Amino acid sequence: LVDRLKSTIPNIKADELIRLNKLAQTVVFTSKGTPFIYAGEEVMRDKKGVHNSYKSPDNINAIDWNRKVQNNDAYQYYKALIQLRKNHPAFRMADADLVRKHLEFLPVEQENVIAFQLKDHANGDLWENIVVILNANPAAIKLMIPQGKYTVVCNNGRIDERGMGSVYGQEVYVPAQSALILYK
Fold this sequence. Notes:
7-stranded antiparallel β-sheet, alpha+beta, 26% strand, single chain
């Protein structure tokens, strides 16, 4: 993922690389199906741009575990994403009928934005409604969500299931290149 982001966005800054990496993994872990991450992604592993490293030496293919310290923020985010998915069955619906019943895409006008809610205690989840907004834009966006009082659990590259504040009403702001996850 790091190599792909670097090749897609030449001269990408380190903070943008981390934000987009976290956003990409939020897509993976809030989507239906079995999430898959490549070995070392959680520590922002790269292969120095080598497209097919099958016959490359260890300095290309090895996981540099020093990156776990250097990229501890990303590592902790991955851990929190995995825990969020484990703790909330709404993210693990394996039946197409359940998905049709509980998943609702929310209207968005901006490009590079996906918004959906998992509603009505999806798959037996304790949270009544979960709203997930994924903003890949380089600027913050404003979006309308269903009316309610929500607890924020993911915002601007941080996750805390205990809550990071509340949102009342229908309007939310999502920081640039990040995800916002709230529940009612």
